[in-house]
Amino acid sequence: MDTPPPLSLKSLLSRLARVVGKTPAALYERQRVLMEAGLLQTVGGRGPGSGVRATPQAMAVLLIALLATESVAEIGDRTPRVIKLKSTNKRCPITGKKTFGDALTAILASGQLANKIDFIEVNRSGETASARIVTKPDAFFGKQPISHFGSDKVASAAGMSTQVRLHLPLLAIANFLERDGDEGTE
Questions:
Q1: 89 Cα distance to chain centroid
Q2: Does some domain include residue 132?
Q3: Could you read off the pLDDT of 141-167 as tens digits, one per residue?
């Protein structure tokens, strides 16, 4: 019995576009820039099974690029910095990971974790950034762990700062990626 080729990230963009208020073309442009910057890995060839695979890591990178940047021109510079933001507690209290990118990847790889997340957000001001992962109330038996990454200088910095909060059905994304995204990959 033939197994279907793994899903590409591009195949999920129309669904994601509706939720985040962007066009599929705008999201694909971000994906293309992320590929050029070496932040998304591709599988060579044409047709099904080639391009960027729909993995938890690829989706995390795309979501972080949406949160971290206003325009595609900023992607190559800002996105890697936000991906690498370190937990202010040495390790994320929700996932046990050290960086924002790894924590979001772990959440998207686990339906159980994804179901506990209320929202993710990135604050940015100039060269400084921070991020948070906030759980739903009572998701951890009456506690509401919030995971902080990066510098707290963003909130106190003089000048303009931007806070972008993303409420997404992370459980639905995680379940979809878990079911289809990694089939046939090494």
A1: 20
A2: yes
A3: 667 788 999 976 655 555 667 888 888
Task: Show the domain range for 120.
Answer: 9-181
2 falls within a domain: no
The answer to whether the beta carbons of residues 161 and 97 sit under 8 Å apart is no
pLDDT in tens, 83-118: 999 999 999 999 999 999 999 999 999 988 998 999
Q: What is the phi-psi region of residue 52: left when phi exceeds 0, alpha when psi lies from -120 to 50, beta otherwise?
A: beta
The band of 1, judged by pLDDT with boundaries at 50, 70 and 90, is low
**Nearest C-alpha neighbor of 68 from the set 109, 30, 35:** 30
Tokens of 36: 């050029």
- Establish if 43 belongs to a structural domain: yes
Residue 181 has pLDDT above 70, yes or no: no
H helices of the chain, where?
13-20, 24-36, 56-68, 75-83, 100-108, 111-114, 153-156, 170-176
- Tell me the whole-structure pTM to 2 decimals: 0.85
Query: What's the number of domains the chain is made of?
Result: 1
Q: Is residue 186 part of a domain?
A: no
